[in-house]
Amino acid sequence: MTDWTPIATAAIAGSSGIVGAGLGYLTARYQSNVEIRRIQSELDKVRIEHGEEHLRHRQAVYHDFSIASIASTRRTQSSPSKTWTSSTNGSARSSIA
Question: What pTM value is reported for the model?
Answer without folding.
Answer: 0.45
